[in-house]
Design brief:
2 domains; three-stranded antiparallel beta sheet; binds zinc ion; 3 helices
Length: 101
Amino acid sequence: MPRYDYECDECGEIFEARHGFDDPAPPCPNGHSEVHKRITSVPRLLGGIMTDAGHGGTATKEELRSKWAEETPKLRKKLVDKLGEEAVNKYAPSLNHKYDD
Ligand SMILES: [Zn+2]
């Protein structure tokens, strides 16, 4: 028999049950009958991740550029204070450049 994961809508208990495909959902271990199947199939998980990534990717180039322009001088100054101008030029030369794609 297939195994299903359920989550109780009333107490939040997550439990497993084995039963036939067409059988009604079993009650949760605490006796509640309002339960739903947890869908954890891989395609759905991947879909969620891709959606999140796509959403994060909606930052425009202008936004990235202004973020870079704003943050980089601060970061560079911190490093210069700590390491000295020469070390920063040597180890973090990219901080000397403007955002460039
Ligand atoms: Zn319950």
